[in-house]
Predict the 3D structure of the following.
Amino acid sequence: MAKAKSATAAKAEPAPGADVPVLGGMVAYLNVDGAAKAAKFYEKAFGAKEVFRYPVDEKGRTMHIHLHINGSSMMLSDFFPEHGYPAKPAEGFTMTLMVDDIQTWCKRAADAGITVTLPIEKMFWGDFYCQMRDPFGILWAMNQPDKG
C-alpha cells in the first residue's frame, strides 16, 4: 500500500527566486570576483535589471545573482573554490549583445567604465560591431544588423 504524502511535503515552499522568469533561449552563468559589484556595473553599462540575489556569506560572496539584460537572463556568482569554482581569469568566450542602436549602447558602456577594445565598425558580414572588456575581465561584443 502506498503511503500518503505528509501535509508538509504537499505544501513545499518553492526555492527562493523561483517566481522570477528566466528569459532567453540560452542563459550565461558567469563566475567573477565580485558578483555584487559586477551586477551594479552591468546595470550602468548595459541597463541590466537585478531580479534576484542570494544574500552574501561571511566572506562577502554571493552564490547567485539573476539579471535581465536586453531581453535575456544572465546569472552571476562569486568564486567558491571550496565548492569546485576556483578563481581563474575569463577566457575563450565573448558575451554578445544584439542591439538596435549600437552607438547608444556602446556609449553607455564606455561611460560606465568599460574598456573598448574594438571601436564600432561595419564588418565584412554587413553588421555594425564593437568589442569591449569589463572590469571583471569579461569580453563583451555588440552587434547591430545593418537595416539597409
Q: What stands out?
A: Confidence is low (pLDDT under 50) at residues 1-11. The domain at 24-80+92-144 is CATH 3.10.180.10 (2,3-Dihydroxybiphenyl 1,2-Dioxygenase; domain 1).
